[in-house]
Fold:
Amino acid sequence: MAKFTVSTAVMAAFLGVTGCTANEHDTASAVRQPRQCFWANDVRNFRAVNSTTVNVRAGRDVYRLDLMGICPDINWSERLGLITTGSSSICSGAGLGTTIVTRRSGGRGQQRCPVRAVTVLTPEEVAALPSRDRP
Structure:
């Protein structure tokens, strides 16, 4: 059973990275399409929409990170980190393997918030965001 689970996770990670690579290098389209993947160290800004959703800007693109549960202190965070497992890129779709790390309010250590899903926003969706939610 354990071998099947590990094999499934490895195959899913391989397929996810392969899918990201194909989308990143697609230059045939005349219209700029948002990238489907980004590197954690490319994130330049973020906005916590609420305790379960965070928007991040990586390069010129904006991604919505939907969290697995409530991340109570994320609205007050001035900084956050992204930790990934299996790959150092983060791709749209399931966010499994990606975790947001922030400091808890009052200096109570770190808070880890697993990501459930990653969605790349179109330029129109970014323009429609209220300014308070736009990274």
